[in-house]
């Protein structure tokens, strides 16, 4: 017995079902009744299955729609046995009383396919007529579109947060015409520095004012991140250079991209970029700065993935891989680097409502609190793998400086609520006074460096910021020693002024000694340079705010004139290699901190105190002002932005 071939819905043929003798070789003989019954059962089961398949299997024609631009064409099942026709690979159903409609449909499809082919052919011909450059430009435009789309996705608005009290964003114009003139001079210098960077170094990190081209160093990685633009923004704003500010904002909006394969310094990027962007945001209210700051901060977070949570010094912005400077003691991280993140990271958590940033810096603080400190001093090096100190060097200058500054400023920035930070600052300063601060034979107070059990009687230009720090921390000091710390600040300011006054150019050297008859003078050739650093002027400004002693404005004016005379070139401002030489040579670098700090502090020195009052603003270590936030001691949970 042979059944006819069955055609299932799919159109694929099933093998013929042979239920005859060949199907059951062991039963050539007559089949018994029970066997016949079984056979009948199997046969009926099979027929039921076929019927079931016919009626209940889903009709693919109802939902198979090919998205080839043939919007309305449904591709039905193929049943060539019933007159289905194959057109260029697609099958059109034509059946029964719908025959006419289907024929029309078929015709429409045929025309559409023909038209599509012709169009594609035309486009290909057009493309071939275009030059290679034109084609490349078109590809680039398409790429840009994609990048813009991605950027839009990345720039999602952040949750709204109530802004802190932003007091004292005003012109600060002094009434005294002489002071006004000095202030205008500083503004003119800012314009000269900016305009030349704008012309010759735009988009590069810094400017080479003599070669008149862009400049960069390894702290910014290998890509053009416009460090000068970001660092200078708030100075431009404060000085009322609004067109320049807008130019900077536009560049940042369009070009500042952090998805680059570039290994940057976590510390430098934090203080210059995140600090600069946050300050620009608070001053101007422009969201773009906040968004960029948060994007960048996200790129720095992988640096904290170390066994201890002490971040690496450098991180690759793209891969997130971190490492330390090769020169740092036994693979250590640097105190002044991992200890100078607190202010910016607290603001990031405040603005985003995301505690991740706050937790990172508080973790560092807790870890430091638990550690033994030789003589109560913090060594400059800490190994992020083992959590142990490296070499026992302590400095209030390079490698240590802003760690102490940020302890004090964390307290100030929290509206004096973060008493834990204040205590750490007080303890550290007591140890520093005991072990590092000395008076020279000539009566100059200086801060030396502790190196493996002995005091090096050398002070760096960087260390001169401490005069301002002592004055800033005087109010609220332990045992009410405010007068003492203000006095200490004044003494450091005096010493640092001497380091300027004892040079030929009236500009301070990088480091100076108090040893073997030498007082506040550089001895080695490689300590004689001045690279437009701000620290001495920074201290003058703090001392001016706290004492209003006119000598600080006088000293600031001396420095302004010296910079203008010896560092100014037609292409901007340059550092000089020897402040003791009457014919100095230039280093040909206009540092971004010259615009961020040096010129800002000078401008503030000749402005009224109600411009950015110190009760409401705290300046980060790159002179970017951040507003005071009223925060609880160790938590930000009071912030309504937290969910
Ligand atoms: C600035 O980038 C910062 O002030 C930092 O804390 C150390 N020094 C430079 C300028 O000298």
Give an overview in words.
The chain is mainly alpha-helical. The chain contains 18 helices and 20 strands. It is globular and about 115 Å long. Mean pLDDT is 85; it is low at 1-31, 50-95 and 637-643. Bound molecules: 1-deoxymannojirimycin. The site of 1-deoxymannojirimycin (DMJ) has 8 residues, from helix 18.
* Each distinct ligand: 1-deoxymannojirimycin
Binned, the helix content reads 40-55%
Give the uncertain stretches in residue-range form: 1-31, 50-95, 637-643
Work out the number of β strands.
20
Based on CA atoms alone, the radius of gyration comes out at 38 Å
Q: Structural class, from secondary structure content?
A: mainly alpha
User: How much of the polypeptide forms β-strand, as a percent range?
Assistant: 5-15%
Task: Give the termini separation.
Answer: 77 Å
The order of strands across the largest sheet is 5-6-7
Largest sheet: 3 strands, antiparallel
The helix tally amounts to 18
Described by the principal axes of the CA atoms, the overall outline is globular
Mean of the pLDDT scores? 85
Pathway: Protein modification; protein glycosylation
EC number: 3.2.1.-
Membrane topology: Single-pass type II membrane protein
Keywords: Calcium, Disulfide bond, Glycosidase, Hydrolase, Membrane, Metal-binding, Signal-anchor, Transmembrane, Transmembrane helix
